[in-house]
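Fold Annotation — chain and its backbone
Next Lines — sequence and tokenised fold

***
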Amino acid sequence: CGPVQYILSNAPQYSWTEAEACMMDLKIGVITPHENAPEKYGHFADNTGCRLIFRQGHTGKARALALEMQNQMGVDAIITSGIPTAMLEGALSVPIFPIYPGNFDVFLACHEAKKIGTRIGFTEIPVFTMHYDVGRIVSILDAEVRQYTFETLESIPDTVRRVAKDGCDVLVTPGGLSYEIAGELGLRAILI
């Protein structure tokens, strides 16, 4: 019961055993900016009695999607990917479990970006991505990687516009909103 194992290992305050959780017929909401997530990850709940409900959205839409999943769909928990949980705190009564990309994910995305161009822009929110070792990743890639940070959600559009203005060939980002804005600007982007 993959998603349930993830939830149980990250929620010690719940006293469910894995077997009990699988027998509960859990509905687990998944909010992610990745458009192919249901095809890629939907099978993780096969044969478990768990149901994964996917919704595509970025940081700006996450709160509304989470409330819809909780209030209208009756999910038992929500897993978020690439969405800061601070956006959802206090709004939901169901448990929230974030999944953040790791260094290997960043490396793979930057490696993929290098196929598009050698001037790579990398955006991050330091409080959520401070564990990335971008310096080491850059040294392995042999590409120009410019780091851009935004301190607030409101600064994301201006930051992405600056990446495009600075002549980057491609943007690598862990956030769906910056990915979406890059697309609107005609800047190729890779979502970690």
